[in-house]
Write a structure and sequence with these properties.
692 residues; 7-stranded parallel beta sheet; globular; Rossmann fold; 19% strand; alpha/beta; 7-stranded mixed beta sheet; 19 helices; Dihydrodipicolinate Reductase, domain 2
Length: 692
């Protein structure tokens, strides 16, 4: 595609934004060699994700303006949050750079027009992050379109896995924010065929959305109809573009990386009978090639990205039109903006109704007990935090739930005060005003060491310091059983005296972060005058909405592979049990142990856990894999990970499914104490313990 990048000098390139998407850009730029990265910028001050991809000698700036004043890149890649795209693109154009803007290009059509007009006046090119058009299935589909005759129908479908956090790893994403972030992909692939074959701009005929993250749109371009479906809930995960013409159909599959061609009218008996076999063979062999290509080309970043960037660079060198026309970028932004407006309106209406229902539930609650002090629960919107705030409020405590955002009414518990704070950074200390007890459930659950250090370790340190200054005197820290040294190392069952496995990143960043957070509490709590209790729940499950723990096994298609002896037990903790123990600890910290490894008194067997899951998922078939077989396979799987992950630390597969051994005597006493205290409250309130 274009001239060879080896025959010319590479273009000078700068990256603005050094997050996850920038990693893919760096890989793509390095892969084709048409550009060389000469500068980086990110306001966070963190360039660590690009270590190994960009030389440490490359200058780094915390300001894009400073970068552009200091160095003179020919091309700038903008891989920052969408709301920053317009200002950064205009700044780069003012400094004479060509600009590649990640999707969504802009959030508003007027903004896209402003950027495109500025580029025209400056004589510079812009490109949007529409890399699916340069994936092999999309290119093959475009080449094969003439075989279909007249195109009558185009369908773009995209269902995907929900995530909780944005690409910066800090802020949480709502379903609508996530949907709008990926929406350009299915939109521009649809418009590329729909508008291209009809020769006119498609018109939006109807649009139906759901605030949970669903889009259904019907478009018309001449005599060709387009259908767009985007879903956060639809399963399995899928992404495809299907084109139907008067002489057959094409299906570009962006998950499998393959193109299925069913050309010919298919109206004869032979065509009707042969088409399923033609399709099956293409899916089988095409998917195999597609998956193999993705594995072998993993070092090039997202599929299609290197090819699109190279085409953009070649157009700059040759002075030709960029690979994506301004009109295609405009139409993509236009349709995404229309869908976004409808989604936001639906969300507003949905949350207004949810707020009415929340107020009604709050009115029906018993009033808080004036004798009880205010409890602050960090991570109050998470799985455990939500159960804790509900349990505390049900038992009469005034509760303030703290998180990185204030959840919308549809995600709140009745009777709870919600507040916002980023504990890993500077935050308003007034969120602890009037607080008597802190229950610290919040912790990082994803990302590398940097994310866990900031959002677990530093967050705990900051919270301890601010709590002490606010005259809080009681601190309940929620740690994890995973922080302990293993029973294999200790040579026997683990108990509350087992040492914490500190400074051990080989256990993974989550365990490292939880262990270091617990150390902060132990070392700083007493010095700050805080009465501290540490609760280490085992793997959390919610038996009222059950999903199996990771140590049980893995789901592979329609088979659930359970690992280990059927009768062996997995120590875990039901989220409602944990909430009761935390509530009892808040009620009577003097009676609670200083540290408890919290698991269910009677651990369920692997067979019981699998049976529970198969009851909920009757579509699955359970298969048992003996531990001995996994132990034999584990070295080979470790070697395979080293090849595929290319330098990343492999996981010990056998250890990941092994059952730890625990002395549960203290946990049994604590659970019984919490349940007894729940049933026979000294303040005269009798509580419902049926949840456990």
């Amino acid at each position: 595609m274009g001239q060879s990048s080896n025959s010319v000098l590479p273009l000078d390139v700068a990256l603005i934004g050094c997050g996850k998407m920038a990693v893919h850009h760096a890989k793509a730029i390095n892969a084709h060699g048409a550009g060389r990265i000469i500068a980086l910028a990110d306001p966070s001050g963190d360039r660590s994700k690009l270590d190994g991809l960009v030389s440490k000698e490359v200058p780094f700036f915390t300001s894009a303006a400073d970068l552009l004043k200091t160095v003179k890149p020919m091309v700038v890649h903008i891989a920052t949050p969408p709301a920053t795209h317009v200002d950064l693109a205009m700044l780069c154009l003012e400094h004479g750079a060509h600009v590649y803007v990640e999707k969504p290009f802009t959030l508003r059509l007027a903004e896209a027009d402003a950027v495109l007009e500025a580029a025209r006046k400056a004589g510079r090119s812009v490109c949007a992050g529409h890399q699916l058009l340069y994936e092999a299935p999309a290119r093959g589909l475009t080449e094969s379109l003439p075989l279909l005759g007249r195109v009558v129908h185009v369908e773009s479908y995209f269902s995907f896995k929900t995530v909780r956090k944005s690409s910066d790893g800090r802020s949480l994403m709502s379903p609508i924010d996530q949907l709008l972030d990926i929406l350009p992909h299915p939109v521009y692939t649809l418009l590329n065929v729909l508008g291209g074959t009809a020769g006119i701009a498609p018109k939006l005929e109807s649009l139906y959305v759901r605030p949970e993250g669903e889009v259904h749109a019907l478009l018309q371009a001449g005599e060709t109809t387009g259908v767009l479906v985007v879903s956060l809930r639809g399963r399995p995960i899928d992404s495809y573009l299907r084109v139907v013409g008067t002489n057959g159909s094409l299906r570009a599959d962006f998950v499998r990386g393959q193109l299925t061609k069913l050309t010919g009218p298919g109206t004869s008996a032979v065509g009707i009978l042969s088409n399923p076999y033609r399709e099956s063979m293409q899916v089988l062999f095409g998917s195999t090639r597609g998956f193999a290509s993705r594995i072998l080309n993993k070092g090039k970043g997202y599929p299609g990205l290197a090819e699109l960037i190279e085409a953009f660079y070649n157009s700059i060198r040759q002075g030709t039109a960029p690979p994506l026309s301004p009109s295609s970028i405009r139409e993509t932004v236009r349709l995404c903006e229309q869908i976004g407006e409808k989604l936001r309106a639906a969300k507003t209406e949905f949350e207004a109704q949810a707020e009415i229902e929340l107020s009604d539930r709050t009115r029906r609650l018993s009033p808080v007990d004036a004798r009880k002090g205010l409890v602050l629960v960090t991570g109050g919107s998470g799985m455990l935090g939500r159960a804790v705030v509900a349990e505390l409020r049900r038992c009469g405590w005034p509760v303030r739930a703290l998180g990185r955002r204030v959840p919308p009414p549809s995600e709140r518990e009745a009777g709870i005060e919600y507040a916002k704070a980023d504990l890993g950074g500077e935050f308003d200390p007034t969120v602890l005003s009037g607080v008597e007890t802190v229950v610290h459930c919040a912790a990082e659950t994803a990302g590398g060491k940097e994310a866990h250090e900031r959002n677990s370790v530093v967050a705990t340190r900051n919270l301890l310091r601010v709590a002490a200054k606010a005259s809080v005197r009681r601190f309940v820290h929620i740690s994890s059983l995973a922080v302990l040294k293993t029973s294999k190392e200790m040579g026997g069952p683990l108990d509350e005296r087992t040492p914490v496995d500190l400074d051990n990143l080989s256990r993974g960043p989550y365990v490292w972060g939880k262990a270091e957070s617990e150390r902060e509490v132990v070392e700083q709590g007493a010095a700050l005058g805080l009465k501290v209790r540490i609760i280490r729940p085992g793997p959390l499950v919610d038996f009222s909405d059950y999903e199996p723990p990771g140590r049980l096994g893995r789901e592979l298609g329609l088979i659930y592979v359970a690992v280990g002896p059927r009768s062996s037990r997995i120590n875990l903790c039901d989220v409602n049990t944990a909430a009761q123990v935390i509530r009892a600890t808040v009620h009577d910290m003097d009676a609670a142990p200083a540290v408890v490894n919290l698991v269910e008194p009677t651990a369920p067997t692997r067979e019981e856990l699998l049976a529970r899951w198969l009851t909920k998922r009757p579509d699955l078939k359970g298969v048992w894999l003996p531990s001995l077989v996994l132990s034999v396979l584990s070295p080979m799987l470790t070697l395979l990970q080293r090849v595929i992950l290319r330098g990343k630390t492999p996981i010990d597969i056998a250890a990941a499914f092994a059952s730890e051994r625990y002395d549960v005597s203290l946990a049994t006493q604590v659970v019984q104490w919490a349940r007894k205290e729940s049933e026979h409250r000294p303040d005269g309130h009798k509580e419902d313990a049926s949840a456990t």
